[in-house]
């Protein structure tokens, strides 16, 4: 028999019987427990366990956090800037090595490996830990950056750039994982603005820095400069890494959990889809086997990737249905793809990356070929776009990051698409004259502002939408698709320019040696040859902008998938993710009879 629970009203005996107490006895009340004031990053759920409280970011000492953020952000900056720093150095490199046809591969070799390995590095960080993965990526990046500076031929330079891109990919994806994980909730809007600012400014500042180094020193310093700066940044990162008690509780994965087959298919599909578009810049036809074979193979690899992920999901449900703690570390997690908002944000990121990187590469080339600008001036002309990009990231943090205010990710990303579409559309109507017009630069401001909104907004949304146990892969996927879209943009621009150049060559107005003179000695060109070159580059850029408008229109349609009727603040969304992770771990404990691994060493 259970113990009787006293009622609120006293029994009759208590009324009739005299009491020795001076005051009448109060009825037993159910105590009301007042919740404690939540600390930044803590959970407010009454069922929160001790382990669950450590799922979110902890209180890192201020100076250590600032140093850590600086070290990680500088690594992210170096990896991003190297995807665009060669934009104003390509002509000089082509002149030294005497190879104009292969010059774009100096850029594409980096971006292909850069985009291909992002998700793989994210998964490696789940096994080795964030610190070890970031440090390893930094070492690879620094070593092959220095090797690029010592290259003695075009083939050697392209090979070293590809290996440099592997390290850059790790810096990019692991940075996007570390910063949201270690940042307290109260500072998330500032870190999101910082990340977006780095993404936006590095792309525009790259051509500027590349132009300065190429014009006043040597193009080799474009690569050598990563050595001393990267070495200092890596040292700061290692010294500032927080102690265990200041890190969130994350679960380590085993090597056997990593989906290497899926990672291979992802790398193959990304590389093979981009390759034929780049080759189309020199290929005489779009129907050649060199174009169709890799493209079809890449698409088949992508289809095989989705089929493989479905097979792994089915196998997981059969072999281990009650213990989600031991799920396979998917290369492309189905749980993320089933999240409509996250999936739409990922596609939005891919589509907005296309025009941004295209502009970063195409406009400096136009400024040099059409307006006769020096490499330095060609880079400096992108500064208005740089300032606008930085402003967009700050606006995104202010609109979506304030505690107690509902997030507006849908409006932010939709405005990003609209601004970029406006800028590219206006560039279509800009006619070239003898000097760079202010309106050409003004139109780029819209593109930069839109990309700033998109980069910061997508980063913040990913942190809020992705489950804690898939946070690394979620950020890795967003990082990879942004570069994937940009790589396709660069390749498409090269293909269009190649087609226009071949048209001028076929017309007899532009002899083949004129392109070599354009890189090595522009003064050797006749006025008629200059006219043909300007016409080819101008027509190519106009077609580039038309294609960008079509891509951005599609991005606006996709962004509709981000809309949610009932919205809460970013902080409430993060707390919900932590509660879900706590429930997942408790379910795993009940299903296996063992406590799931909650070691904080996963981030060490």
Automatic annotation (TrEMBL):
Ranges of Basic and acidic residues composition bias in the record: 1-25
UniProt membrane topology term: Multi-pass membrane protein
A single cellular component GO annotation: plasma membrane
Subcellular location: Membrane
Region described as Disordered: spans on this chain: 1-56, 579-604
Highest taxon above the source species: Eukaryota
GO molecular function: transmembrane transporter activity
Main location: membrane
SUPFAM superfamilies: MFS general substrate transporter
Parts of the chain that traverse the membrane: 65-90, 102-121, 133-152, 191-209, 221-240, 260-277, 289-308, 341-364, 376-397, 409-428, 440-461, 481-499, 544-563
Domain Major facilitator superfamily (MFS) profile, residue spans: 68-567
InterPro entries xrefs: MFS (IPR011701), MFS_dom (IPR020846), MFS_trans_sf (IPR036259)
Keywords: Membrane, Transmembrane, Transmembrane helix
Protein name (database record): Major facilitator superfamily transporter
Species annotation: Chaetomium fimeti
């Amino acid at each position: 028999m259970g113990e009787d629970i006293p009622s609120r009203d006293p029994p009759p005996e208590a009324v009739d019987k005299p009491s020795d107490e001076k005051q009448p006895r109060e009825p037993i009340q159910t105590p009301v427990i007042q919740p404690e004031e939540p600390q930044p990053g803590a959970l407010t759920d009454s069922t929160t366990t001790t382990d669950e409280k450590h799922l979110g970011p902890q209180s890192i000492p201020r100076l250590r956090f600032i140093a850590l953020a600086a070290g990680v952000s500088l690594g992210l900056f170096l990896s991003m800037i190297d995807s665009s720093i060669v934009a104003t150095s390509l002509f000089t490199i082509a002149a030294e090595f005497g190879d104009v046809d292969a010059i774009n591969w100096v850029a594409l070799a980096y971006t292909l490996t850069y985009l291909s390995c992002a998700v793989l590095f994210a998964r490696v960080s789940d096994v080795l830990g964030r610190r070890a993965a970031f440090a390893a990526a930094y070492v690879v990046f620094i070593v092959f950056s220095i090797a690029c500076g010592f290259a003695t031929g075009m083939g050697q330079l392209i090979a070293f750039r590809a290996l440099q891109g592997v390290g850059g990919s790790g810096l990019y994806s692991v940075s996007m994982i570390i910063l949201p994980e270690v940042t307290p909730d109260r500072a998330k809007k500032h870190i999101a603005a910082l990340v977006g600012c780095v993404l936006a400014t590095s792309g525009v500042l790259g051509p500027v820095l590349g132009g300065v180094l190429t014009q006043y020193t040597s193009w080799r310093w474009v690569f050598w400069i990563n050595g001393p700066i990267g070495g200092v940044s890596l040292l700061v990162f290692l010294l500032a890494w927080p102690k265990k008690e200041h890190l969130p509780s994350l679960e380590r994965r085993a090597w056997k959990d990593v989906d290497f087959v899926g990672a291979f298919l992802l790398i193959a599909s990304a590389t093979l889809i981009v390759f034929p578009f780049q080759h189309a810049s020199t290929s005489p036809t779009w129907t050649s086997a060199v174009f169709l074979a890799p493209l079809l193979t890449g698409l088949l690899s992508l289809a095989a990737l989705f089929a493989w992920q479905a097979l792994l999901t089915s196998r997981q449900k059969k072999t281990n249905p009650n213990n989600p703690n031991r799920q396979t570390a998917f290369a492309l997690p189905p749980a993320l793809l089933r999240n409509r908002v996250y999936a739409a944000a990922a596609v939005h990121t891919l589509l907005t990356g296309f025009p941004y990187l295209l502009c970063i590469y195409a406009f400096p080339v136009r400024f040099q070929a059409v307006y006769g600008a020096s490499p330095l001036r060609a880079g400096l002309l992108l500064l208005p776009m740089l300032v606008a990009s930085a402003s967009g990231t700050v606006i995104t943090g202010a609109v979506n990051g304030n505690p107690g205010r509902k997030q507006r990710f849908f409006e932010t990303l939709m405005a990003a698409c609209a601004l970029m579409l406006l800028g590219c559309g206006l560039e279509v109507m800009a006619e070239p004259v003898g000097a760079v017009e202010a309106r050409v630069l003004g139109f780029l401001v819209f593109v930069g502002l839109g990309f700033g909104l998109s980069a910061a907004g997508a980063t913040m949304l990913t942190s809020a939408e992705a489950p804690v146990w898939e946070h690394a892969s979620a950020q890795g996927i967003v990082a990879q698709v942004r570069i994937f879209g940009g790589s396709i943009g660069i390749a498409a621009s090269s293909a269009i320019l190649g087609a226009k150049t071949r048209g001028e060559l076929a017309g007899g107005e532009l002899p083949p040696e004129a392109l070599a003179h354009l890189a090595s000695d522009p003064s050797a060109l006749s006025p008629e040859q200059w006219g043909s070159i300007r016409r080819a580059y101008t027509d190519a850029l106009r077609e580039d902008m038309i294609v960008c408008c079509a891509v951005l229109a599609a991005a606006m349609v996709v962004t509709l998938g981000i809309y949610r009727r009932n919205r809460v603040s970013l902080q409430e969304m993060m707390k919900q993710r932590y509660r879900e992770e706590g429930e997942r771990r408790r379910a795993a404990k009940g299903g296996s009879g063992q406590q799931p691994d909650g070691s904080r060493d996963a981030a060490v």
